[in-house]
Structure to design on (225 residues):
């Protein structure tokens, strides 16, 4: 059973701070890693993908991947109240077309 | 550029009934995946359709079935509904290399079984 683990939270940070969201996975052969944002009552929206060890930056978002330690993280700089949502980590194992989702981490950014 | 369209938005059914949910993928996408998301949980993979065939299936019973049409749209059918089938059903469209490029999700169908 390929597993993707996330702390359900909530993670509460003040406006302007850096929010750090973490995800671990069980399959060492995993190839592709995704972060989705899901607002309450809405559907998930892809915000970042990462495939190689290291950091990938897109605006205020940075994804970090460490395959040796089997974790992927998402940093949100200058957090805004509009970033308050559930962040879902998804991991595609080797040999599968289909990414497995974690249960998500709830982020609350308070003014 | 139209995104992923799902219908209906909400549905209330009685235990034992059957339901059909529909999905039109984003323009340019030919692969459709269906997910079930219970409250407070991550999306759980039901199955994926590509070239009108079920390409991969998750750990769901045979009561869950689907179809993909030549125009890439798709249906999800659930027979003999159980209370536990109450959830948000998400359709996700993509290119065939799902695991590389990720999904575009529709707005979902909220199914309530009473």
């Amino acid at each position: 059973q390929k597993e993707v683990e996330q702390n359900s939270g909530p993670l509460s940070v003040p406006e302007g701070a850096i929010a750090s969201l973490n995800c671990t996975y069980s399959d060492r052969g995993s190839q592709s890693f995704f972060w989705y944002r899901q607002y309450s009552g809405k559907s998930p929206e892809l915000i970042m993908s990462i495939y190689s060890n290291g950091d990938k930056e897109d605006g205020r978002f940075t994804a970090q991947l460490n395959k040796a330690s089997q974790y992927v993280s998402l940093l949100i700089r200058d957090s805004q109240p509009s970033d308050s949502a559930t962040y879902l980590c998804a991991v595609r194992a080797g040999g599968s077309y289909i990414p497995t989702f974690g249960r998500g981490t709830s982020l609350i950014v308070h003014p | 550029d139209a995104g992923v369209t799902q219908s209906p938005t909400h549905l209330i059914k009685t235990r034992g009934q059957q339901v059909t949910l529909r999905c039109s993928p984003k323009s340019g996408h030919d692969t459709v995946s269906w997910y079930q998301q219970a409250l407070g949980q991550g999306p759980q993979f039901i199955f994926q359709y590509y070239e009108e065939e079920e390409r991969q299936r998750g750990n769901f019973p045979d009561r869950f079935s689907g179809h993909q049409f030549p125009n890439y749209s798709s249906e999800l059918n659930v027979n003999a509904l159980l209370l536990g089938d109450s959830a948000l059903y998400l359709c996700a469209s993509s290119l065939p290399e799902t695991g590389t490029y990720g999904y575009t999700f529709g707005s979902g169908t909220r199914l309530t079984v009473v």
